[in-house]
Amino acid sequence: MFNKTMRKGLAAATLAVASLGLSAGTVQAADTIKVGSFLSVTGPASFLGDPELKTLQIYIDRINAEGGVLGKQLELVHYDDGGDAQKARTFVKRLIESDGVDIIVGGSTTGATMAAVPLVEQAEIPFISLAGAVVIIDPVKKWVFKTPHTDKMAAEKIFEDMRKRGLSKVALISGTGGFGKSGHEQSLAVAPKYGIEIVADETYGPKDTDMTTQLTKIKNTEGVEAVLNFDFGQGPAIVTKNYAQLGIKLPLYQSHGVASKSYLELAGGAAEGVRLPAAALLVAESLPDSDPQKPVVVGYKTTYEESTGSDVSTFGGHAYDGLMIAVDAMKRAGSTDKAKVRDAIEQTRGFMGTAGVVNMSPEDHLGLDLTAFRMLEVRNGNWALAE
């Protein structure tokens, strides 16, 4: 019940609105749909967060220029966590409690994403992560979704390719950060399914600048037929260079964590012949015209490169997919009601993104299968479809 002071305050507020020539209805109509985001735009994971943020900015501006969503403009509320999980948690708390965002599309790294998960689950706000590890959506968390292929899928795609090439004895080297650690665990878990035997297992830290000791052990391990490096950032480029310096001639595989031009630039000529699973985005123009994904990846690549002057990466593509899935869900829900939007995201079917065709369900908050991955090879300093 209003007391006298509260009534006076309300009257004053009403008068203030009237003096601006605005009605309550006009104020309401001016509301925006707030898209919250926390990304690693600076720091060691900036190669992830920078193209992700640029993508969100480009396409939110484009959507707004075309009339917005549900008659409202989108507003991006963004924070740079610098790859720090604790900062990510702080910013997500702010997005929810202070900024009042309608949905969150972000989380460049697995560590930052997992720090956010308890908060979005408690607040019951839909969250589409842009990070890689399978733990983000397995087990399924009601309010959490993601767009990139998982580390488990990457391991399966790599081992599938190795099996086709008659390779079965594999050495594993991985980073000890969240992504590398998870990729290591998933590789060990799925290897038997593909008849792969892990005969050597080495790791390195995020600040290590030389991996010759670990690679020398691998080189001297009897029976090794191929090597898999699971990590992202500078580590894989260092591994690739050391690999060449040691004269190791075995096939070298990397994970989708290196699917950007920065890896090619850092590794240089040492990357020639390296194979990895990645989204079709990296070889957009090489896809046959009959490929239904070609218009999407070529369209995104063209828009991104023309807008930024930078080479496209699969990481920016993850942000494109996350934003478009969110917008599509809002349109189908006919509302920004968080529960309705969550349900609509979970009901996403046949959505063609840069990562592949997305078919989500209550049991699958990613919606991609192995066919969404293309096996690529570094050829003449660039990405090419593996033969």
UniProtKB/TrEMBL annotation:
<feature type="domain" description="Leucine-binding protein">
    <location>
        <begin position="32"/>
        <end position="367"/>
    </location>
</feature>
<dbReference type="GO" id="GO:0006865">
    <property type="term" value="P:amino acid transport"/>
</dbReference>
<dbReference type="InterPro" id="IPR051010">
    <property type="entry name" value="BCAA_transport"/>
</dbReference>
<keyword id="KW-0813">Transport</keyword>
<dbReference type="InterPro" id="IPR000709">
    <property type="entry name" value="Leu_Ile_Val-bd"/>
</dbReference>
<dbReference type="Pfam" id="PF13458">
    <property type="entry name" value="Peripla_BP_6"/>
</dbReference>
<feature type="signal peptide">
    <location>
        <begin position="1"/>
        <end position="29"/>
    </location>
</feature>
<dbReference type="InterPro" id="IPR028081">
    <property type="entry name" value="Leu-bd"/>
</dbReference>
<keyword id="KW-0732">Signal</keyword>
<comment type="similarity">
    <text>Belongs to the leucine-binding protein family.</text>
</comment>
<protein>
    <submittedName>
        <fullName>Amino acid/amide ABC transporter substrate-binding protein (HAAT family)</fullName>
    </submittedName>
</protein>
<dbReference type="InterPro" id="IPR028082">
    <property type="entry name" value="Peripla_BP_I"/>
</dbReference>
<keyword id="KW-0029">Amino-acid transport</keyword>
